[in-house]
Amino acid sequence: MGSAMLEHGFVRDIVEQAATPFYYYDMNVLQATLAEVNRQTAGHPFRVHYAVKANGNPHILKNIANHGLGADLVSGGEIKAALAAGFDPQEMTFSGVGKTDWEIRLGIENGIGCFNVESIPELEVINQLAGEMGKTANIAFRINPDIDAHTHKYITTGTADNKFGIGIEVLEGAVKHALSLPNIHMKGLHFHIGSQITMMQPYVMLCETINRLLDHYDQLGIHFETINVGGGLGINYLEPDTHPLPDFEQYFGTFKQHLKLQPNQLLHFELGRAIVGGCGSLIARVVYVKENRNKKFIILDAGMTELIRPALYEAHHEVQNLSAAGREQQDTYDVVGPVCESSDVFAHDCVLPVTQRGDLIAIRSAGAYGESMSSRYNMRSMPASVFAGNQ
Q1: Which residue of 106, 285, 329, 363 is most buried, as measured by CB atoms within 10 A?
Q2: Cis peptide preceding 21, ω within 30 of 0
Q3: What is the distance between the alpha carbons of residues 258 and 278, in angstroms, rounded to a whole number?
Q4: Within its chain, how far is the Cα of 144 from the centroid?
Q5: What is the tally of helices (H) and strands (E) in the chain?
Q6: In which band, very low, low, confident or very high, does the pLDDT at 246 lie, cut at 50, 70 and 90?
Q7: Burial of 272 by CB count in 10 Å (0-12 exposed, 13-18 middle, 19+ buried)?
Q8: Cβ atoms of residues 368 and 273 within 8 Å
Q9: Distance between CA 351 and CA 334 in Å, rounded?
Q10: What gap in Å lies between CA 282 and CA 363, rounded to an integer?
Q11: pLDDT (tens digit, 9 = 90+) per residue, 248-262?
Q12: Quick check: 330 and 353 in contact, CB under 8 A?
């Protein structure tokens, strides 16, 4: 949502469509993001899968599917949503450490492209269920490469202390076991080292790890059709207006430069936040401005139930007062929600134009993990979603 669109008159028009709080999606930003992803990957053996967990809004899913991306899924519910949105089942990957039997059967029934397998017990269950159904399941092993992506501890996924993936030290035995199973087709290797990664060095380290593995298995006569490097590319939460899109050129360029793909090998990516994070904002209204001895609080009608990231990760989101045009005086506030939890805070010591009851507030970069992680805690109603721009 660019600054030109953050005018009070414009927001007043869309407020007529939905009471606050609501999610606002600038589809122009989403279209520009998808176009840039396709531009950066054109002419290369790259395949981008959208991580549905970032935002599963049906309208957004249909737009992404229409741009030709695949889908990365972590639940049976996401499989159903991706199918309904028109994603090609062959371009779906199913990740997650706790795939249940019904979810695995659902994936096999619909011919999804690949299960990203996280453990030997999971591999054996997939083989058993596929056999019972008279099918063969495509799998890739998710490898834990023990690489620290230097993000928040709750969104780091690639170190030896995380629950995700199979350790490199046991991979060879797992690969040989998979090759022996009658209802398994082993397609490749899968990695994912974390989220909100803004430095490329962890990805360079990942490429070096993959290169060593490919050399090793080449010597054993084992070829992988696909290499999946996951996602995790971060967005600019500090300057959403001047940097609405991530640096896809640097991101994809890192793999172009450092990863040594073998002939006829496809490279898969699973991007979520980088696709949808910048297109969304949470719009709320000021219920009260409250002053205590040491603090001033802006109390909104939106809270951690609509955007949990600040409470869960202490994540930063830019806060903008949409009603403050012409107000030159500023003040410092804690911006909080109405939920009965002390952690229900969007921003501490936030400098804003002097703010009044009834003002409209935009909490930016909420397109990823806003709507998808919302809840009805305190029996709150789920917000509406409002779309603007080219769709």
Answers
A1: 363
A2: yes
A3: 28
A4: 19
A5: 11, 17
A6: very high
A7: buried
A8: yes
A9: 9
A10: 5
A11: 999 999 999 999 999
A12: yes
> What is d(CA 168, CA 263) in angstroms, rounded to the nearest whole number?
23
Q: Which residue has the tokens 């450092």?
A: 258
**For residues 14, 20, 26 and 27, what is the CA-based torsion angle, rounded to 10 degrees?**
-80
Alpha-carbon distance 138 to 133, whole Å?
A: 14
Q: Is the dihedral of CA 67, 155, 246, 10 positive or negative?
A: positive
pLDDT of residue 4: 42
Amino acid at 200: M
pLDDT of residue 13: 66
What the chain holds in terms of domains, given with CATH numbers, is: 3-10+279-388 (2.40.37.10), 27-277 (3.20.20.10)
- Tokens representing 16? 């007529």
Average pLDDT over residues 239-250: 96
How many other C-beta atoms are found inside a 10 Å radius of the C-beta of residue 262?
13
Give per-residue pLDDT as tens, 75-98. Answer: 999 999 999 999 999 999 999 999
CA angle at 352 for the pair 348 and 354, rounded to the nearest 5°: 120
pLDDT in tens, 177-194: 999 999 999 999 999 998
Structural contact between residues 129 and 101, judged by C-beta atoms closer than 8 angstroms: yes
Q: How many residues belong to the chain?
A: 391
- Report pLDDT digits (tens) over 340-374: 999 999 999 999 999 999 999 999 999 999 999 99
Q: Which residue, 175, 76, 191, 72, is CA-closest to 120? A: 175
Alpha-carbon span 197 to 371, nearest angstrom: 21
